[in-house]
Design a protein that fits this description.
heterotrimer; A mainly alpha; B mainly alpha; C alpha/beta; B: 78% helix; C: alpha/beta; Rossmann fold; 6-stranded mixed beta sheet; 12 strands
C-alpha cells in the first residue's frame, strides 16, 4: 500500500515543523551546540509533538474498535459517553480519596469510562436495528447527560475548574516532559488492539457470523471496551477531549481501503496522528504567538468532515 | 375548543398565577419592599418569557419536522444564534458592538438569525424529509460545528478571554439581562400571536408533507414561516438565558400528554403555560427552598436528556 | 380529463420518466399498471403536485398543475400517497375531518361535519371513529386515509396503491366503492395497482408502464391481453375471460 509511506513522510515532516514552532524560536541545527535549545526541545517541543501523534493515533484506533463493536460507522469514543465516564471516575476518586496515587486515579477513570461505554452499548442494542442514524444521536445525548452530571458534581464540590480541562476542547500547550507520559499507555493499548485486529474485524460482521466462526464474542467485546476506555481515559485526563478524530479517520480509511483491520489499523493510526498534528499546527500558527486549542480546530474541521461523510453518495452506488 | 381543553388551560393559568403570587410575595419583609418586588417581578417576567419562547418554539418545530423527539436546540438553532452573535462582535469590533443600544442590537440579531435559520433549516427539512434520522444527525452536527466555530472565532478575537466565550455556552436562569426584557417580551408576544393565528394551518402541516400538499396547504411557505417564528423565539430564549437543549422536549411532551389533542390552538398555549409553571416552580424550589439557584438549568438538562433517551428507546423517533 | 404532455423526470442522475404524453379520461376509473420501478407512482405524484414538475405540462380538468394555486387544486383533486405514517396522535374522525379543510380552511360548518360522517360511513369506519390511528390495524388506518381523500369531495381522486394492507373483502369493497363514485357521482379516479386482477375486474381504462415509458394504454380489454402483459412483466401470462372481464393467470 502506497498510503503508508506517504503518510509516514507527512507525519515526520509535520513533527519536524512542530519541533520548531513555539514562543521561543529554536534552530534545530544548533540543538547539539546550544544547551538551552536542547532543553526547550527535550522538555517541551518533543513531548508536545509526541503527545499529539500518540493522541491522534490512539484515538483513531479506539474509533475503529468502537465502530466495530457497535457496528455503526457514525460513532466515536467522543460520542459514546466514554470521555464523560472517564471524567466521572476521576472526579469520584478525587472526592473520595483526594490523596490517591496517580495510578489509582487512572484505573478509576478507565474503569468508569468502560462502564459508561458499556452502558452506551446496552442502550443502543435496544434501538431499532435499521435506524443507523439513531445510534450516534443516542450517544451524543448520553454524553450530554453524563456531562451534566459531571458539571453538577463539579459545581457542588468546587472542582469545576479542574473538570473544565477534561471536558472542554483539548489542547497540547500544557504538555511538557513529565506530564504526558500517560499517553504512552494509550499508545500501548492501541497497539494491543492491532494484535487482535482480526477478531475485531469479525465482530464487526455481526454476532451470528462471529459465533459461526467460533469466536467468543464476549471476550472480544470486553477487550475492545477496555482498549477504548483506556485510550480515552488517558487522553482526556492528559490533554482533554479531542473530538471527531476517532469518528472521521476510521471512516475515511475504510472508504479507501475497506475493513480488513489488520491491514488498515496502521494506516488509521498514522492518519489520525497526521490529522491531529495538522490541527495542532494550524492552531499554533493562526494567531501566533497565541494558540487555538487543537480540540477546537478539530471541532470545526471534524464536524465539516463528518457532515461530508454523512451526505456523500454511498461508495457503492 | 372543547370543554376539556378550556378546563386544562384555565387550571394551568390559575396554577401559574398562584406560583407567581408566591414568587412575588413570599417572605416580603418590611424593608425596601418596592425594590425587592421589582427585582422579583423582573426575574419572574424573564422566566415566563423564556418558558413561553421555549415551549412555543418546540411545539412549532416538532410540528414542522413531523417529529416528537426534536427540539430547536438539539438541531443547533441556539448554537447558530451564539455563532451569529460572535460573528457580529467580530465584524463590528468589541467596542463597536457594545456601543449599540441593547434593544436595537437584539432586534438586528433576531432579524439576521431569522433569515439564516429559515434558509438553512428550511433546506435541511424540506430536502431531508425522506430520511429523518440523517436529517436529525445533520442538525446535531451542525450544532457542534456552530459551537466550535463560535469558540474558535471568540478565541481568535481575544486569545486571553477564552473564559468569556465559554460562559455563553452554558445556560443559566440567573443571569438575565434586564435591558433586553421589554424587547424580548414584545417579540415573544408577537411571535406567539402569529403562531396562534397559524394554528389551523399547523394542524394540517402536522399531517406530513404529502397529505398537507394534497389538502392545498402551501407547504414550503408555511414551513419557512414556522421556521422563522422558531428562529425568533429561540433568539429570545438564548439571548436571555443561554442555550437550553432539552427543556423544550419536556414541555412539548407535557403539552401533548395533557391535551391529548393535536389542535395547535390548544397545544400552543398549553405548552407555553406548562413551561412557565415548570420554570417558575423549579426556580422557586431551587432558589428559595434548596438555596441552590444555579443548579436548576443542570437538573433540567439532565432530566430532559434522560427523557430524550427514554423516548428513543420507546421507538418514538418519528 | 387529466392531460399529461411531454413529462420527463429525473432523481439525481437516474431517469425515472421519459417524455410521457397521455391522458386520464374523465368519468372513468383509470388504473396504472406495470412492474416495480416503472415510474407509475412518480407519474401519479407529479399529477398530484406532490413532486415538482421538471419537464412538460400537466393539467387536471383544465387547471395547469404548475400554475394553479395549490388551494384551488385541492378542490379539484385529492391525492393519497403511499407513505401515510402520521406523527400526530389523531382520532380517525379527526383525520377524515381534515379532508374538508380545503373547503373550510379551519372553520368547519355543519355541512362539513355531515360530509365527514358520510365518508366514515362509506368506508365502514363509523364504529372506529373515536379510536386513535395507532390503535387500529394497518388496513383500518389505510381505509381512514382513503376516506379522508374521499371527504375532500373533488372531481378527481388519485390513489397510489390504495389496496396496500387491505384484505380481499375490503379491497373488493374499496374497488366497488370507487366504481360507484365513477358511475353514479360523475367523479373520475386514477390509481396505481399492483395486483393486476383488481385492474382487470374494475378498471375502465388502463395505462401500462415499464422503465419510465408507456407501453400500452386504452380500454381494459385492449391492454390486458396475453401479448401485452407477457411483454410487460417478461413472464408467460395467460388471460382468460371471467364474468365478462379479463382474468390474468400466471402460474408456472
Amino acid at each position: 500500500m502506497r498510503a503508508t509511506p506517504a503518510l509516514a513522510v507527512a507525519l515526520a515532516a509535520m513533527m519536524l515543523v512542530s519541533m520548531t514552532i513555539g514562543a521561543a524560536s529554536v534552530d534545530l541545527g544548533h540543538a547539539f551546540s546550544d544547551p538551552r535549545t536542547m532543553l526547550v526541545l527535550l522538555e517541551s517541543r518533543l513531548p508536545r509533538t509526541l503527545a499529539v501523534a500518540l493522541t491522534g493515533a490512539a484515538l483513531s484506533v479506539a474509533g475503529v474498535l468502537i465502530q466495530a463493536l457497535v457496528r455503526n460507522r457514525f460513532v466515536g469514543p467522543d460520542t459514546a459517553g466514554t470521555a464523560e465516564g472517564a471524567a466521572l471516575g476521576l472526579l469520584a476518586i478525587t472526592i473520595l480519596w483526594p490523596a490517591s496515587p496517580l495510578w489509582l486515579r487512572m484505573v478509576s477513570a478507565s474503569v468508569s469510562a468502560m462502564a459508561t461505554t458499556a452502558l452506551f452499548i446496552a442502550i443502543i442494542r435496544r434501538l431499532p436495528v435499521r435506524e443507523v442514524m439513531l445510534v450516534p444521536i443516542a450517544g451524543l445525548v448520553l454524553s450530554g447527560v453524563l456531562g451534566s452530571v459531571v458539571t453538577f458534581i463539579g459545581w457542588q464540590t468546587d472542582l469545576i475548574q479542574y473538570i473544565g480541562t477534561w471536558l472542554f476542547s483539548g489542547e497540547f500547550s500544557g504538555v511538557i516532559s513529565g506530564r504526558y507520559e500517560l499517553l504512552w499507555i494509550a499508545g500501548g493499548a492501541a497497539l494491543l488492539a492491532w494484535f487482535a485486529a482480526d477478531r475485531f474485524a469479525i465482530i464487526g460482521l455481526g454476532d451470528q457470523v462471529a459465533t459461526g466462526l467460533g469466536l467468543g464474542t464476549r471476550g472480544v467485546l470486553r477487550l475492545g471496551l477496555a482498549v477504548v476506555a483506556v485510550v480515552t481515559a488517558m487522553v482526556v485526563t492528559t490533554v482533554g477531549m479531542i473530538p471527531f478524530v476517532g469518528l472521521v479517520v476510521p471512516n475515511m480509511v475504510a472508504r479507501i481501503m475497506g475493513d480488513n483491520l489488520r491491514r488498515t489499523l496502521p494506516v488509521v493510526a498514522l492518519s489520525g496522528a497526521v490529522l491531529v498534528m495538522a490541527c495542532d499546527l494550524a492552531g499554533r500558527l493562526i494567531i501566533h504567538p497565541y494558540e487555538v486549542p487543537a480540540g477546537l480546530v478539530l471541532g470545526v474541521v471534524g464536524s465539516l468532515l463528518f457532515l461530508w461523510l454523512l451526505h456523500r453518495r454511498p461508495a457503492h452506488g | 375548543m372543547d370543554r376539556r381543553a378550556v378546563l386544562i388551560l384555565g387550571g394551568l393559568l390559575a396554577c401559574l398565577a398562584g406560583l407567581s403570587a408566591l414568587w412575588l410575595l413570599q417572605g416580603l419583609g418590611d424593608g425596601n419592599r418596592g425594590f425587592i418586588l421589582s427585582l422579583r417581578a423582573t426575574k419572574l417576567a424573564a422566566l415566563v418569557v423564556v418558558a413561553f419562547a421555549i415551549g412555543i418554539s418546540t411545539v412549532l418545530f416538532q410540528t414542522v419536522a413531523a417529529n416528537r423527539v426534536l427540539t430547536p436546540s438539539i438541531m443547533g438553532f441556539d448554537a447558530l444564534y451564539v455563532l451569529l452573535q460572535t460573528l457580529l462582535v467580530a465584524s463590528l469590533g468589541v467596542a463597536g458592538f457594545a456601543g449599540l443600544p441593547a434593544g436595537a442590537k437584539f432586534l438586528s440579531e433576531i432579524a439576521l438569525m431569522t433569515a439564516m435559520a429559515s434558509g438553512l433549516f428550511g433546506i435541511l427539512l424540506l430536502r431531508g424529509a425522506r430520511d429523518v434520522p440523517r436529517m436529525i444527525l445533520t442538525g446535531v452536527i451542525l450544532g457542534v460545528l456552530f459551537r466550535s466555530l463560535s469558540s474558535f472565532v471568540g478565541r481568535i478575537l481575544d486569545p486571553n478571554a477564552y473564559a468569556v466565550v465559554q460562559s455563553v455556552s452554558f445556560a443559566s436562569f440567573n443571569k438575565v439581562q434586564p435591558d433586553l426584557l421589554p424587547v424580548a417580551m414584545g417579540v415573544t408576544a408577537l411571535a406567539g400571536l402569529a403562531a396562534w393565528r397559524m394554528a389551523p394551518r399547523l394542524d394540517v402541516l402536522a399531517l406530513g408533507r404529502d397529505p398537507a400538499v394534497s389538502l392545498g396547504l402551501r407547504h414550503r411557505g408555511v414551513v419557512l414561516q414556522v421556521l422563522g417564528l422558531v428562529a425568533v423565539l429561540v433568539s429570545v430564549s438564548t439571548a436571555l438565558v443561554g442555550p437550553v437543549s432539552f427543556f423544550g422536549l419536556i414541555v412539548a411532551g407535557l403539552a401533548h400528554g395533557l391535551m391529548r389533542s393535536t389542535r395547535h390552538a390548544a397545544l400552543l398555549p398549553t405548552a407555553a403555560l406548562s413551561g412557565a409553571i415548570l420554570l417558575v416552580g423549579g426556580q422557586w424550589l431551587f432558589e428559595r427552598v434548596l438555596g441552590q439557584a444555579a443548579t436548576l438549568s443542570v437538573v433540567v438538562e439532565f432530566a430532559g436528556g434522560l427523557f430524550f433517551l427514554y423516548l428513543l428507546l420507546r421507538g418514538h423517533i418519528r | 380529463m387529466i392531460r399529461i404532455d411531454g413529462v420527463g423526470h429525473r432523481i439525481g442522475n437516474a431517469p425515472i420518466l421519459h417524455d410521457i404524453t397521455t391522458h386520464l379520461p374523465e368519468g372513468r376509473l383509470t388504473a396504472l399498471i406495470g412492474p416495480n420501478g416503472a415510474g407509475k407512482s412518480t407519474l401519479l405524484r407529479l399529477v398530484g403536485r406532490l413532486e415538482p414538475l421538471q419537464q412538460g405540462r400537466i393539467s387536471v380538468g383544465g387547471h395547469d398543475v404548475s400554475t394553479t394555486r395549490t388551494e384551488d387544486l385541492a378542490r379539484v383533486m385529492a391525492i393519497l400517497g403511499q407513505q401515510n405514517s402520521i406523527a400526530s396522535r389523531l382520532r380517525l374522525s379527526e383525520l377524515v375531518g381534515f379532508g374538508r379543510w380545503p373547503h373550510h380552511r379551519g372553520r368547519p360548518t355543519a355541512h362539513d361535519h355531515a360530509r365527514v360522517a358520510e365518508a366514515l360511513e362509506a368506508f365502514a369506519l363509523t364504529p372506529l371513529a373515536h379510536r386513535f390511528l395507532d390503535e387500529v390495524s394497518g388496513g383500518q388506518a389505510q381505509r381512514a386515509h382513503i376516506a379522508m381523500a374521499f371527504a375532500q369531495d373533488t372531481d378527481w381522486l388519485l390513489l397510489d396503491e390504495p389496496l396496500n394492507n387491505l384484505d380481499m373483502a375490503h379491497a373488493r369493497a374499496l374497488m366497488g366503492r370507487l366504481r360507484d363514485l365513477v358511475r353514479h357521482q360523475g367523479r373520475s379516479v386514477g390509481l396505481v395497482v399492483h395486483e393486476i386482477n383488481y385492474a382487470a375486474a374494475w378498471a375502465d381504462h388502463v395505462i401500462a408502464m415499464k422503465e419510465g415509458r408507456i407501453v400500452a394504454q386504452g380500454d381494459a380489454h385492449e391492454v390486458l391481453t396475453e401479448a401485452v402483459l407477457s411483454d410487460l412483466y417478461e413472464a408467460p401470462i395467460a388471460v382468460v375471460s371471467h364474468q365478462g372481464r379479463p382474468l390474468v393467470l400466471h402460474h408456472v
